[in-house]
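This section describes the prediction task in plain terms. A model, or a person checking by hand, is given the sequence of a single protein chain and must write out its three-dimensional structure as a string of tokens. No templates, partner chains or ligands are provided. The sample shown here is typical of the held-out split.
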Amino acid sequence: MKRLFIANRGEIAVRIVQAAKGLGLTTIQAHSQADADMLAVRLADEAVCIGPPPAAKSYLDIEAVVGAARAASADAVHPGYGFLAENGDFADAVTAAGMAFVGPSGDTIRMLGDKVTARRTAQAAGVPTVPGSDGRLADIDAARAVLEETGFPVMIKASAGGGGRGIRVARDQAEFERVFAQAAAEAKAAFGDGGLYVEKLVERARHVEVQILGDGENFIHCFERECSLQRRRQKVWEEAPAAGLPADLRQALCDSAVALARQVGYRGAGTVEYLYDESAQAFYFLEVNTRIQVEHPVTEMITGIDLVQEMLRIAAGERLSIRQEDVTVTGHAIECRINAEMPEKNFMPFPGTVSALSVPQGEGVRFDTMLYQGYTVPPYYDSLLGKLIVHGPDRATALERLRAALDALQIDGQPTTVALHAALARQDDVIANRFDTAFLESWLASDEAKSALTTKEKA
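The expected answer:
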């Protein structure tokens, strides 16, 4: 592999360019007409326009992306995350065109991308799953039969879902009857597939995930991440390792992720996600993300492993050079997602022009971003601007460094969620590690949150 085509944008494209250059690869950055001046285009060795601003006509157009990669004489294509990263047909099209896809095969993506098939695969690997339907439900009558075993509350989920879409919670029979059709309609609209399944709702759960690497024959984990601070089921803040997780349960969690990777002969980097019931000291399989995650830097900070470079080596046909016993945890890391949103106005997206940018420096501080001074954020894509990551010898030190780094981070001319993270880094329950997946939305409705965000905004 000598020439890498990057089929994505924003901060992950910058991250891939940097990792590829570290391996001596020539980088070719794809971009829409709206992204002609983005940072990844400036940093890459070459750049190719793949279409107009709408993602459907550029970053999501398989024919345009593969055609551009072939025309650029690329040896491999890295999909990043989002867009086509978990599209099995795209992976197949890349390999059919004679290039390496930086990720698992199309068959693996499809197997693990369908939530029902993934659940069955996890069960076959001995991974605990949440009580619920054995597979895709034929109709609402089949769902009613499952309820006799699970009881309420339950979650109705899209078989092909992701990103929190196609999900409804039912706490009694009347609510279940009302929202079942809504979930099917949303799943059909969002994913082109109205298939549903039902799971018992594990309340006050934490969201913990395990980073895996595999070359098709050898498989390892890089320990776990805590991702419980979420808004509308979208992650906002991530940590590694998961503080307070008992050592024996951590081992079982990580071992189960490796067992699942081995079950499917996984190639590349991936993440196995779980619900952790802290009160019951039990964990349950959620899903597999067959790509690099937004929150991968916290794992890199505690293990010293460059996950993107490992993906590239595996795609080039190399075997894993890292043994499980070589992977150790050092310290604690926290990542804050900095979005182009206004928290004080219900997180309204608000693209702007960066009139001034000052990035914090210091021990254990990293800022992965797409920004530079004078850059105008286009309104066509997601609102993620970058990630502020800190590392320290322990969680308390990491929080201290995070507070200082957030105070030093200056992004003028562009509304961001920096104020939200500055408030969370000083919030008593967050500091004490007392939170679950429902915490953030509840806290945002509190007077404490409204006061903190308003005060920060006025400052």
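For orientation: The first helix runs from residue 10 to 22.
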